[in-house]
């Protein structure tokens, strides 16, 4: 079976839905039921007895190009584990780009970041190249950057708090840095943080990393470790936007591309393109009356 849920512009929705149903039928994936989801009235749910999830995702994306959607090969349920990227997913910025601005190097660093997130550059070498450019920057610039530049995306606090209230384990895993990720996790309510560490000596960045690199393989390993700890049958939600998020997005039951680069979007079975992160709560069928606004403290 396949279940698809989407939140779309209702203008002309019947015409687009008819076209999508015809495309599904032509692909030998007839839709058995289509209707609005109880308790979340702006969520359209489609039920199919059989079919290919990636093909269904492509059909819906074609006919509802701006829709926020989720496709699963089982009845959709609230995940017991939520693993998320940080930069441009839980926060609206790329921390290393903003920090580089304090060294007058933002454009140069941001270009490398963009290419790495598109999968055009190998992640670790691109990371080390950018970190090296920060050599000599005062460590105090990190706190200033956090205070002045770094903001959660709309809905991030509510998403994390509500999922935790429903029993989900929440983990922030990033190719960025603990200097940023730890405070962000505290603000948003994540229970665990995995990331890179900037080396500091004499109050200044050395231009190197301290310890092993947190990359795409780290994100995947963290998801697998946490899922194994929670036990068989654990449904997993993973969100991200870049190429280094692809392995964990592909491994999750619910892999969500948040306003993502093309390669990450292609690997996902769900996406948030137009709405904020609370649309994920709607896609999981959590009524707004159950949403929690204030993030809980970290464990």
From TrEMBL:
<dbReference type="InterPro" id="IPR004469">
    <property type="entry name" value="PSP"/>
</dbReference>
<keyword id="KW-0028">Amino-acid biosynthesis</keyword>
<dbReference type="GO" id="GO:0036424">
    <property type="term" value="F:L-phosphoserine phosphatase activity"/>
</dbReference>
<keyword id="KW-0460">Magnesium</keyword>
<dbReference type="InterPro" id="IPR036412">
    <property type="entry name" value="HAD-like_sf"/>
</dbReference>
<keyword id="KW-0718">Serine biosynthesis</keyword>
<dbReference type="Pfam" id="PF12710">
    <property type="entry name" value="HAD"/>
</dbReference>
<comment type="pathway">
    <text>Amino-acid biosynthesis; L-serine biosynthesis; L-serine from 3-phospho-D-glycerate: step 3/3.</text>
</comment>
<feature type="active site" description="Proton donor">
    <location>
        <position position="87"/>
    </location>
</feature>
<dbReference type="GO" id="GO:0000287">
    <property type="term" value="F:magnesium ion binding"/>
</dbReference>
<keyword id="KW-0378">Hydrolase</keyword>
<feature type="active site" description="Nucleophile">
    <location>
        <position position="85"/>
    </location>
</feature>
<dbReference type="InterPro" id="IPR050582">
    <property type="entry name" value="HAD-like_SerB"/>
</dbReference>
<dbReference type="GO" id="GO:0005737">
    <property type="term" value="C:cytoplasm"/>
</dbReference>
<comment type="similarity">
    <text>Belongs to the HAD-like hydrolase superfamily. SerB family.</text>
</comment>
<dbReference type="InterPro" id="IPR023214">
    <property type="entry name" value="HAD_sf"/>
</dbReference>
<keyword id="KW-0479">Metal-binding</keyword>
<dbReference type="GO" id="GO:0006564">
    <property type="term" value="P:L-serine biosynthetic process"/>
</dbReference>
<protein>
    <recommendedName>
        <fullName>Phosphoserine phosphatase</fullName>
        <ecNumber>3.1.3.3</ecNumber>
    </recommendedName>
</protein>
């Amino acid at each position: 079976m396949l279940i698809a849920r989407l939140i779309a512009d209702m203008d002309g929705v019947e015409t687009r839905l008819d076209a999508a149903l015809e495309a599904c039928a032509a692909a030998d994936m007839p839709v058995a039921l289509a209707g609005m989801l109880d308790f979340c009235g702006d969520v359209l749910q489609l039920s199919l007895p059989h079919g290919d999830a990636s093909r269904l995702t492509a059909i819906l994306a074609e006919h509802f190009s701006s829709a926020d959607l989720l496709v699963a090969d089982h009845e959709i349920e609230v995940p017991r584990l939520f693993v998320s990227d940080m930069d441009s997913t839980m926060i609206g910025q790329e921390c290393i780009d903003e920090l580089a601005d304090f060294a007058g190097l933002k454009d140069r660093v941001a270009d490398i970041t963009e290419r790495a997130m598109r999968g055009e550059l190998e992640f670790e070498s691109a990371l080390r190249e950018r970190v090296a450019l920060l050599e000599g920057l005062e460590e105090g610039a990190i706190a200033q950057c956090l205070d002045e530049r770094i903001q959660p995306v709309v809905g991030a606090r509510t998403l994390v708090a509500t999922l935790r209230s429903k029993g989900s384990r929440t983990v922030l895993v990033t190719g960025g840095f603990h200097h940023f990720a730890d405070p962000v996790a505290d603000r948003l309510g994540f229970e665990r943080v995995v990331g890179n560490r900037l080396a500091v000596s004499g109050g200044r960045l050395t231009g190197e990393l301290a310890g092993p690199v947190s990359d795409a393989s780290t994100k995947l390993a963290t998801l697998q470790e946490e899922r194994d700890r929670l036990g068989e049958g654990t449904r997993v939600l993973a969100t991200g936007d870049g190429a280094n998020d692809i392995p964990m997005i592909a491994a999750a039951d619910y892999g969500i591309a948040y306003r993502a680069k093309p390669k990450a979007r292609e690997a996902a079975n769900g996406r948030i393109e137009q709405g904020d992160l609370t649309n994920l709560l709607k896609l999981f069928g959590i009524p707004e009356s159950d949403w929690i606004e204030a993030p809980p403290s970290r464990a």
